[in-house]
Amino acid sequence: MIGRGQTGNTKLVKQINREGILHQLKEGTRMSRADLAKLTELSRPCVSALVDEMIQEKLIREVGVGESKGGRKPILLEYNFQAYGVVGAVFEGSILHLAIADLKGELLFQYTARLSQPKDGEGAIQSVERGLATVLAQSGFDKSRLLGIGLGLPGITKRREGTVSYSPSTGWMGLPVQKEIEDRLGLPVIIDNDVNLMTMGEFHKGVGKGASDLVYMYVGTGIGAGIVIDGQLFRGTREASGEIGFMLIGPVGNRCHEEYGVFENNYSVPAIHEKARTILPSIEEGTSIIKQIVDKANTGVVEAGLLLDDIYKHWAYGIANIASVMDPELLILSGEMIHIGENGVQRIQQMLTDWVPYVPRLELASLGDQAGIIGAIHSVLEAFPSTLKSRG
């Protein structure tokens, strides 16, 4: 925060000072105006003015009196986590997951829907509109209390420009997706890559909590990864880090530029589904294909066992490449990979032990379809940590 003797743009200074006060109260300890002045190194009149303003906005509330230290008993303050809400939404294949959370990041209301046209960008935007309208109507939550929405999209997102530079599944490439969605929803929007948001969800609340360096590997409609280095999400020069689906794993074939990558063309869920279709007599639609292959292999179906070995081996190739370059503390297996169970994890771990000098700890993702939503919500809380008024 900016304290005594420092200068700067008045609006920016006020915003930073507000955030300094809120930061102290977010720690969960009730404190007085005098305590806040001491901790933030702001003058008492400045703290009182900002606190009174945020009380009017219902962001801070008075919650009784504290012990006297020689004068009048001080009035204690606390952060009101229920003052506003934020929205998180993520597309996972053809499924939209959406939720409203409070300012603590706790999920309040959730919504899930299957897209009828998963490759149609317009249909995807419409599904977000419908989802938000539905959850607002069902919950009775006032839209005016929403700070914004974090939205996870497939492909390479350009967060600063608000565009998607590469997304074969949607046709959004180069289009002003963020502005379009903001205009449709009437809310500020933060866009990000879907796997990046899942990564941050597991980092903040899941199996990655406490790890400073990790890679989150996702296998679904495509194959991607999120990378955290020293506690920060690594994006790369063009925000394209983690696009491991373009690793040259499996037959390269004849692919066009605006298609899925080689790795995902060979070992994503749709590709595995096609492999399984040729060797398994019956495939149950609507059930994880990986789970079906694992189950059949466990019951002694030879063809399923051979296919599973091939899948594990090629997934392990990707992990070996990552481990050789990144040397992460933890590698999280997510998406359809969660269906391999601990036996599958151990088999991949053994392959890696034979191939690379240092094998990261492998863990199955713990949050399921909540990971992306939690990451999206955190992206909004980081971008809009104060109130609607302070952004105006």
Give a written overview of the molecule.
With 392 residues, the chain is of the alpha/beta class. The protein has three domains: 10-79, Winged helix-like DNA-binding domain superfamily/Winged helix DNA-binding domain (Arc Repressor Mutant, subunit A, Orthogonal Bundle), CATH 1.10.10.10; 85-198 and 371-391, Nucleotidyltransferase, domain 5 (2-Layer Sandwich); 209-366, ATPase, nucleotide binding domain (Nucleotidyltransferase, domain 5). Helix content is 42%, strand content 20%. It has helices at residues 10-26, 33-40, 44-56, 121-139, 177-185, 194-205, 262-267, 269-279, 289-298, 302-326, 341-355, 370-383, 388-391, and strands at 60-65, 75-79, 85-92, 95-101, 107-114, 146-153, 156-158, 163-166, 189-193, 214-219, 223-229, 232-234, 330-335, 361-364. The protein has a five-stranded mixed β-sheet with strand order 5-4-3-6-9, sandwiched between helices. Strands 12-11-10-13-14 form a five-stranded mixed β-sheet, sandwiched between helices. Helix 6 packs across helix 12 and helix 9 crosses helix 10. Residues 1-7 and 387-392 have low confidence and may be disordered.
Question: What is the topology?
Answer:
Layout: H1 10-26, H2 33-40, H3 44-56, E1 60-65, E2 75-79, E3 85-92, E4 95-101, E5 107-114, H4 121-139, E6 146-153, E7 156-158, E8 163-166, H5 177-185, E9 189-193, H6 194-205, E10 214-219, E11 223-229, E12 232-234, H7 262-267, H8 269-279, H9 289-298, H10 302-326, E13 330-335, H11 341-355, E14 361-364, H12 370-383, H13 388-391
Parallel strand pairs: 3-6, 6-9, 10-13, 13-14
Antiparallel strand pairs: 1-2, 3-4, 4-5, 7-8, 10-11, 11-12
Helix pairs in contact: 2-3, 6-12, 8-10, 9-10, 10-11
Function: Transcriptional repressor of xylose-utilizing enzymes.
Protein name: ROK family protein
InterPro entries: ATPase_NBD (IPR043129), ROK (IPR000600), WH-like_DNA-bd_sf (IPR036388), WH_DNA-bd_sf (IPR036390)
